[in-house]
Structure formats: structure tokens, C-alpha cells
Amino acid sequence: MTVHPDICLMLYPYHEWGTVQEKVMKLSNMNRKARDLQRLIIGYAAELDMDGNGRLLLPPSLREFAKLDKHVVLIGVGNKFELWDERRWTDRQNEWLSDGESQGSLSDELQSLSL
Predict the structure, then answer these.
(1) What percent of the chain shows pLDDT beyond 70?
(2) What is the 3-state secondary structure (H, E, C) of the chain?
(3) What is the CATH number of domain 2-86?
(4) Domain chopping of the chain, boundaries
(5) pTM, whole model, 2 decimals?
(6) pLDDT digits (tens, 9 = 90+) for 42-98
(7) C-beta separation of 34 from 112 below 8 A
């Protein structure tokens, strides 16, 4: 598990993590934004353990980063899960939906997407 700049956590299956780590570390550390991203994603990465009841034990640094409270949301996103504070997730979701309405049109890349 590691952090995301959107102030949430990303949980990767162990077999996916090596590929993600390799991609992040291939970014040029001479680029400030890439270097900052490497520090966040690799620096916060932690292998998780489960307790006797099958619950994931999150290190305090990850809980604090994502500002997790009592209520959280787990979202499946492709090859990973995202873990959000419920209030932050709702706020961001509303923000994304309202941005889409104000944008009016999609980029060429998104217009070619068929779901």
C-alpha cells in the first residue's frame, strides 16, 4: 500500500507492485515533479499484514496521510484498490461530476473511448 497525491491510499496486489515501482523509478529524478512523485509513492510504500480477523493493519503514517477517519470507501480501479476517507471521497466525487458538467466537451482521447 502506498499514497496517492489525491490524498488517498493505493493498495496493489503484491505481484503488481514490482511493475508499478519499476515504472515510477524509471522517471527522471532530475525532474522535480517526478522526483516528488517517487518520494511519495516509493517512500510511503508498505507491505501490509492482516490481523487474526483478516483485517489489514495500516501503518499510522498511511492513515494520517489519507486523513482516514472511522468511515472509509474502498474503490476498485483496474489493477489496484483506492482507500479514501468517506467524506473526502464524496467531496471529490461531487467535484469531478460538476467539473464534467462545466467542461462541456471531452478531449479527443476521451471521445474515442467506448465503454
Answers:
(1) 91
(2) CEEECCCEEEECCHHHHHHHHHHHHCCCCCCHHHHHHHHHHHHCCCCCEECCCCCEECCHHHHHHCCCCCCEEEEEECCEEEEEEHHHHHHHHHHHHHHHHHHCCCCHHHHCCCC
(3) 3.40.1550.20
(4) 2-86
(5) 0.83
(6) 999 999 999 999 999 999 999 999 999 899 999 999 999 999 999 999 999 999 888
(7) no
